[in-house]
Amino acid sequence: MQTLKSNNESNSEAERRIERLSLHLNPILNLTWNHHPLEMENCSRGKKLIVDANSLTGYMRGKYRDIQEKVFDYFNANPQLQTPLEISKDNHRELCMNQLLGLVREAGIRPLHYVVHDPAKYFAILEAVGSVDMSLGIKMGVQYSLWGGSVINLGTQKHKDKYYDGMDNLDFPGCFAMTELHHGSNVQGLQTVATFDPITDEFIVDTPNDGAIKWWIGNAAVHGKFATVFARLKLPNYDAKGISDMGVHAFIVPIRDMKTHQTLPGIEIHDCGHKVGLNGVDNGALRFRSVRIPRDNLLNRFGDVSRDGQYTSTLPSVNKRFGATLGELVGGRVGLAYSSVSVLKVAATIAIRYSLIRQQFGPPNQPEVTILDYQSHQHKLMPMLASTYAFHFATTNLVEKYAQMKKSHDEELVADVHALSAGLKAYVTSYTAKSLSICREACGGHGYAAVNRFGSLRNDHDIFQTFEGDNTVLLQQYRTSRLLHSVAVRLQKHSKPLGQFGAWNRCLNHLLTLAESHIESVILAKFIEAVQSCPDPSAQAALKLVCDLYALDRIWNDIGTYRNVDYVAPNKAKAIHKLSEYLSFQVRNIAKELVDAFDLPDHVTRAPIAKQSGAYSQYTQYVGFE
Ligand SMILES: Cc1cc2nc3c(=O)[nH]c(=O)nc-3n(C[C@H](O)[C@H](O)[C@H](O)COP(=O)(O)OP(=O)(O)OC[C@H]3O[C@@H](n4cnc5c(N)ncnc54)[C@H](O)[C@@H]3O)c2cc1C
Fold first, then answer.
1. Which residue, judged by its Cα, is nearest atom 9 of ligand 1?
2. For residue 223, pLDDT beyond 60
3. Where, by residue number, is the active site (predicted)?
4. pLDDT beyond 60 at 495
């Protein structure tokens, strides 16, 4: 990679970026870089790597295929529980609840058990459930990661004793009520209050103004019986000022009667209405008027209030308590990053399988050409396939780290998982969202038929970029450890006249680029580890090829930046381009084996155009031809 470097030795962002990639790239690309790409193209364009598909599939499969198959089998055996293409919002919500009830009570899959004891297995279930219907995946996530996770992680033993079984068996459907109309990303700005009443030993939960109405709350509009409500804990007469604001805490608030399902007094619930996607999830808005809850309903792991109104915490400041509280909720973000990759796998599989059978145009008097043989088509889909592999290994590693963190509570690991989950969630979900449109377009008009799935995948997945932390906000969480010299200097320069917040804003685009570049190099490092650990030589060779394409494509995507600072000379830029085209061609040759290794059977992908045999006939039958 040294050959790429021009004389310009400035300590620039581009330089750091390419150095990060090349650091990992050198061992893997040595062979490639020793040859001129055109030379390679001439001598071996026709050569195809032979891949042992079974070995590759086995390597990709992971430990939890059995439980995923149990999910698929359950829904295959219960066609009445499969989501039809056309369904009203209200019916979709009921169906989604019935799907979840069926899974838990009939198929015997108990997600809460795995949330607590085997998070990696929980995420595997979430992946499988999301491929049945993404609304079901999110509904399950609201019940078990958010409502269940908040009680288990922010509460203490008394809360587990009281709520675990009901959350587990769905007797207690619940919500996670954090977001308000005026405050989403800025959780510290929440305004809902919970004031301690020492006379009755209760908290009084209030919505002080309409900006504090809880908004977008999953499970609230129809099914929820309880909500974990995030509110400012206020203690009257705690200090000389009268009422003390102890910061944002979480409280369990019953919202509907257990028997009649009527909304409880003091609580007003409205439906957030029809959404762009995920209409199987019943998002609602909640307003509280002097709702009284027992003192015990404070989820008191990080801060408690005694009978006489004294506040105690093992953590010294509001900020530390807030950080610890949000830190415990990182599992939702891990789940989204992981699930986003499975959406990308489904979309890439449909687009590539179809592109391998679709033929258009060709040389005179010869058979038409398969569209995946067009260079432009390879350019659209092969780097995407490579990225899917890269994200698979990176998010699998994230899930493993998260599972270790839950066991060990090791502080370094906690910080690592926090930063990694923020970066990966933001990077992967943004990439998947863009790729879904590319996949639709790659399938031409037939990609636009709802039955071929791109529309619902795109609409349902789109919000992954916003919830569990808006992507732009999340990418700013490398704040202390990853600042590069250049941006540090800029921040320092602007801090004096603009203050810290203003300086941060002045450098924001720079910082976001740095965050992306960092996460790209982390993804690549995990991919390289996965290539090196692959035991089967043919599968390893295939993975190496895909990894090379991933790395080179990332450099090519930012070639403008490298050229701007003269880090990559024009002839080198051209060589990079040629080489990535060549690698795309090589990956195309094994594209079938690579998508087969995702192990997504036809009943999971479902799109007729992606069926592994008789795609056209299945499609014609779908519209009514015999
Ligand atoms: C379908 C759906 C389901 C949801 N489910 C739940 C739920 O169950 N429980 C719950 O509590 N919440 C839920 N939410 C809310 C979700 O978590 C919030 O939408 C999310 O946190 C973002 O907040 P916001 O919508 O207020 O956006 P904002 O924070 O207002 O962001 C708006 C825009 O401003 C930008 N922006 C904001 N701050 C910055 C900054 N510092 N720097 C640069 N740019 C910035 C963002 O990038 C974004 O583009 C749900 C939302 C939806 C749509």
1. 217
2. yes
3. 468 (proton acceptor)
4. yes
Number of Cβ within a 10 Å radius of residue 158: 10
**Ligand 1, atom 47: closest residue by C-alpha:** 472
Structure tokens at 45: 């364009």
554-609 residue pLDDT tens: 989 988 877 887 888 899 999 999 999 999 999 999 999 999 999 999 999 999 99
Q: Model-level pTM?
A: 0.91
Please check the confidence at residue 41 and state whether its pLDDT lies above 80. no
Is any atom of ligand 1 closer than 6 Å to the C-beta of 142?
Answer: yes
Helix (H, G, I), strand (E, B) or coil at 305: strand
Domain boundaries of the chain, sorted by first residue: 2-59+329-609, 62-168, 175-316
- Rounded distance from Cα 606 to ligand 1 centre (Å): 32
CATH 2.40.110.10 fits 175-316, yes or no: yes
Atom of ligand 1 nearest to the CA of 472: 47
What is the C-alpha to C-alpha distance for residues 305 and 18, in angstroms, rounded to an integer? 52
In this prediction, residue 505 carries a pLDDT of 85
Q: How far apart are CA 103 and CA 404, in angstroms?
A: 27
Residues present in the chain in total:
626
The verdict on whether 202 is a catalytic residue reads no
Q: How far apart are CA 4 and CA 571, in angstroms?
A: 9
What is the CATH number that goes with domain 2-59+329-609?
1.20.140.10
- Our mutation pick for probing the ligand 1 site, out of 213, 467, 511, counting the most ligand atoms within 8 A of Cβ, is 467
- CATH 1.10.540 assigned to domain 62-168? The reply is yes
Residue 9 has pLDDT above 50, yes or no: no
* Atom 31 (ligand 1) nearest CA: 185
Q: DSSP code of 283?
A: -
Task: Report the alpha-carbon distance of residue 126 to residue 62 in Å, rounded.
Answer: 14
- Which residue has the least CA distance to atom 42 on ligand 1? 473
Q: Ligand 1: distance of its center to the CA of 283 in Å?
A: 14
DSSP letters, 88-150, are -HHHHHHHHHHHHHIIIIIS---HHHHHHH-HHHHHHHHHHHHHH-HHHHHHHIIIIIIIIHH
**Residues annotated in the binding site for FAD, as ranges?**
179, 218
Question: Are the C-beta atoms of 385 and 345 separated by less than 8 Å?
Answer: no
For residue 86, what are its two tokens?
Answer: 């056309």
Task: Please tell me the distance between residue 105's alpha carbon and the centre of ligand 1 in angstroms.
Answer: 33
pLDDT digits (tens, 9 = 90+) for 114-126: 999 999 999 999 9
Give, rounded to a whole angstrom, the gap between the first and last alpha carbons of the chain: 58
The confidence score (pLDDT) of residue 55 equals: 95
Q: Is the pLDDT of residue 224 over 60?
A: yes
Check residue 558 and give its pLDDT. Answer: 85
Q: Is the dihedral of CA 382, 384, 388, 393 positive or negative?
A: positive
Buried b (16+ CB within 10 A) or exposed e, 19-50: ebbbebbeebbeebbeeebeebbeeeeeeeee
pLDDT beyond 90 at 369: yes
What DSSP designation does 444 have?
A: G
> Between these two residues, 141 and 521, which has the higher pLDDT value?
141
* Least confidently predicted of 12-26, 153-167, 570-584: 12-26
> Exactly one of 202, 468, 520, 581 is catalytic; which is it?
468
Q: How far apart are CA 481 and CA 459, in angstroms?
A: 35
Distance CA 345, CA 339 (A): 10
User: Residue range 508-527: average pLDDT?
Assistant: 87
